[in-house]
């Protein structure tokens, strides 16, 4: 009673006190996030590249991008990808492997098959040209035995990176019937369904929102460095997540997209595999569910004489606005 009269919060049970403390902590974190200045980037050039890739797939009657096309799409948005080279014959695969250097990974190149591992479409740790040629033939025979030979359009040749040196992450997007595109970040790799360590977000994101989403996962703590391991470049990871979210909004024809795994280590961050599924080519844009949050209105930007740009204000303009106000007279 004395504490209440003095205006000091008090509780009969400790669980209620702990709950209130948690609310206060969450509130302070949210207030702190509001005052952070996010970075916003212009994707106009990347949009055009992405649209060309998708138009090519549609012109060939496909609503599934190959792994190579998916990585080209990500690269257009500044997301680092492992070098990936197409080979239509066993001899070509061997020659490309010689150029890249060993060890090598061979992956199925297909217009119709998305999950390559399930059909024997991935062979790791190939250490010479003979193994690469044999690997090519092995993948081809595997599809033939499954009566999926029409899904074999060759292979892609990629350098094999050391997964033990980093963490396997997942960044993906799908469509919710009410909210539209939804992005996910979390632990990746072959055990993604087992670990179930992920957090959801509504695109488009900025770096502040990306950081908040990533911090909700268990893997985020490891990325900052544990048990003597060097931390990953968190700022770069935030920007990659932002770029990915922008891609989902800029290209509404993307139905599903994921990077798994995205390898993150102290040496860098790179996408090892990617999958992109499009809506059917005959769908009307009006029938596609719009994002819950509207993206930055790029179409309202224009350039005048002397290369002066006129555009809507961005969140990242806060420092410029402050400097501008200092120049104003009383």
From TrEMBL:
Classification via InterPro entries: Acyl-CoA_Synth/Transferase, ATP-grasp, ATP_grasp_subdomain_1
Highest taxon in the source lineage: Eukaryota
Keywords: ATP-binding, Ligase, Nucleotide-binding
GO MF annotation list: ATP binding; ligase activity; metal ion binding
Keyword Nucleotide-binding: yes
Pfam families named among the record's database cross-references: ATP-grasp_5
ATP-grasp domain: residues covered: 71-107
PANTHER family linked: 3-HYDROXYPROPIONATE--COA LIGASE [ADP-FORMING] (PTHR43334:SF1), ACETATE--COA LIGASE [ADP-FORMING] (PTHR43334)
Protein name (database record): Acetyl-CoA synthase
